[in-house]
C-alpha cells in the first residue's frame, strides 16, 4: 500500500483538467455516495483546482439513491467518446470491479484509486487504501477540506457511511467514524430521512422477495451456515433489479448461532453472484479472494460460473476449513 496524503492527491488534481470518476459494478450506497461527494467537491472547487470537466460513471442503481445531490449528473452509459487526464476510481478493489469504465481508465494519463478494501490490488498509479476505514466515504472525508464540505456533500458522505456500516452496527464502525458522522450532521443534513429512504424502506415486492428468500433458506454444517438462493427465473418473475436484493444477506446474517451467511443469486444463465457475511470466526474476504472476488473480513463477495450446486459444493469446504 502506498501512503499518500491530501497534498499528493491535490498535486495530481491540479495537473488535471479533465477528470473521470467511477465506482464499482452493481454500485452500493458507499460507491454512489463517494462518487457524488467527490464530484460535487471537485465541481465546487474547479476554478481553484484548474479543473474544466468532471464526469461520473456508474451502472444504473436503485431510485432510492436519487435523493442524493449530483446523482442527476451521473452518466450511466459508457459510449461517450472521451479521454481523461485523470481517472479516479472509488470503492473498487480490483480492475474487474470497474466494469465498462475500464475504457476510460485505460486511456487516462493518470489513475488514482481511493478505497477501503483490504483486498485492494493497487492497480492505479496512486493507491490510497485505508483498510481500517468504515467506507470509502470515510476515506474521502479525511482527504477533503472540512470547510469545503457543504450540506450536499455531507448528505452523500453520510449515506455512504451508513450503508457500509449497516447504520453504525458493523465492526468497521470506529470512534472516528462516529466523529465524522457528527461533523456531517453539523452540516445540517436530514439524517433520519437519508436513513429511512435509502436504507430502511422497501417496496412491497422487495419485502415479498425478502420473505421468500428467508423461507427458502437452509441451515448447513450443523446450523453454522445459513444459505439462500434466488434464480434468474424468479428475479425476472418479480421484475427485480439486482438492487432489489440489497439487504437480504443482512437479514440472513441475523440467524442466531450461525457463523456465516451466504446469499447466492443468478445473474445470468449458469452464472452466480455470491454474498458472504461472517459473524467473526471466518474471514470471508479470504474465501472471496480465492474465488476471484474480494471484500472485508466480515463481508465479501464474488461471482462464479456454474450452477448453484457447483457454487455451494466449492464454497462449503472453504468455510468448514476455517471453522475447525
Ligand atoms: P456484497 O455482498 O454486499 O455485494 O459485498 C460485500 C463486500 O464484498 C463489499 O465490500 C464489496 O465491495 C465486496 N464484493 C462483493 N462482490 C465482490 C466481487 O465480485 N469482487 C470483489 N473484488 N469484491 C466484491
Ligand atoms: Mn461498495
Ligand atoms: Mn465501501
From TrEMBL:
Gene3D superfamilies: 3.10.310.30, inorganic pyrophosphatase (n-terminal core) (3.90.1640.10). PANTHER family: BIFUNCTIONAL OLIGORIBONUCLEASE AND PAP PHOSPHATASE NRNA. Signal peptide: none annotated. InterPro entries: DDH_dom (IPR001667), DHH_sf (IPR038763), DHHA1_dom (IPR003156), Oligoribo/pAp-PDE_c-di-AMP_PDE (IPR051319). This is Uncharacterized protein. Residues 18-161 form the DDH domain. Residues 239-305 form the DHHA1 domain. GO terms for molecular function: nucleic acid binding. Pfam families: DHH, DHHA1.
